[in-house]
Design a protein that fits this description.
Layout lengths: L19 H32 L9 H43 L4 H19 L1
Subunit structure: Heterohexamer; composed of 3 copies of TIMM8 (TIMM8A or TIMM8B) and 3 copies of TIMM13, named soluble 70 kDa complex. Associates with the TIM22 complex, whose core is composed of TIMM22.
Protein name: Mitochondrial import inner membrane translocase subunit
Organism: Acipenser oxyrinchus oxyrinchus
Length: 127
């Protein structure tokens, strides 16, 4: 068992094999946890360096306020950057999907439909 509480060796029905989708979800969760831990560590380091002049046994009132405000600003900035990044990724994915679908050949069943629709259109103009 690893530090994130998952066990890749225990599979469905004791077969020792796991569904690839389940493994992928566990990996995604582990990555999210690691990212959250890194974010918290960076935020703590930066705010501590900014707000605490002389480390002691406890934080005075102004240090506590400074750390709280620093962490709020840090999270707000991170959330803004994260939303912008995700939006850019979604736009890029949409653009790539559009480009890819335009570049792919028309499947045979769609070619027949297009051909017959042209035939029917041509017949309509003949009558």
């Amino acid at each position: 068992m690893d530090g994130f509480g998952s066990d890749f060796s225990s599979g469905a029905a004791g077969s020792g094999k796991m569904d690839p989708g389940t493994i992928m979800e566990q990996v995604k969760v582990q990555i999210a946890v690691a990212n959250a831990q890194e974010l918290l560590q960076r935020m703590t380091d930066k705010c501590f360096k900014k707000c605490v002049g002389k480390p002691g046994g406890s934080l005075d009132n102004s240090e506590q306020k400074c750390i709280a405000m620093c962490m709020d600003r840090y999270m707000d900035a991170w959330n803004t950057a994260s939303r912008a990044y995700n939006s850019r990724l979604q736009r890029r994915e949409r653009d790539l999907t559009t480009q890819l679908s335009a570049a792919l050949p028309v499947p045979p069943e769609n070619r027949r439909k297009r051909l017959w629709s042209k035939v029917y259109q041509a017949r309509a103009t003949w009558q």
